[in-house]
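#onboarding

Welcome to the new folks! Below is a worked example of what a typical request in this channel looks like: someone posts a single protein sequence, and someone else replies with the predicted structure as tokens. Don't worry about understanding the tokens yet, we'll cover that in week two.

Example request:
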Amino acid sequence: MSGTESTPTLEVVVHLWSYFKDLAGTSRITVQVPTGSSLGRVLDEVYRRHPKLGALRQSTLLAVGVEYQGTSYVLRPGDEVSMFPPVQGG
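Example response:
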């Protein structure tokens, strides 16, 4: 053994909706995080790459699959994340 053991990683696809995709210039981001990471860890990487989205952090709606989740949700293989801007209506 070489002594350089790698930490298992998880590839997470993040879908951006509405004007979030305009702010980021893309509708989809792929993020690599260590296995066992929370949704918050993925978001930190998204906001690092796309600072304009970070300004909306407090009002962003998050879903994993079809269920809304908080930042403490621990991601599993195959999970896909969606980020939505706040919903406004009248």
